Amino acid sequence: MKRLLCSVALLAALVAGCSLHVWYLSHETQSLSAQLEQAGEAVQQGDWEKAYDLTQNAWKNWEDQMFYLHTTLHHDDIDGVSTAFQEALAILEQREQPGEYAAANARILYQLELLVEAELPSLQNIL
Fold this sequence. Notes:
The chain has a single domain, classed as IL-4 antagonist (De novo design) like domain (Four Helix Bundle (Hemerythrin (Met), subunit A), Up-down Bundle). It is 89% helix and 0% strand. It is built from six helices and no strands.
């Protein structure tokens, strides 16, 4: 009976930990996505400085989470998002190509979405 209770308690702790991780990752990526969407709107309005500040702030928030992300996620996925951030910031520094920035921004948003999807307990992720 003790083995069964210990097993159930361990399983419950694992499920709780996984659920907390997915919630936290979802919360963080939604926050980053909101900043990046605001930056995209700023570029459309021609406010490159605001877009740069918003994207730079999102990048700093991403960097602040780097230890946690490297501990819990695939490094290639994290590196892909980081590379896309650097690309977007480089485009913003030029202040010339709103279409290029829109594409780079969309790439970051999509990669952030994929990070959360990869952590969800779905049949696709299990198989």
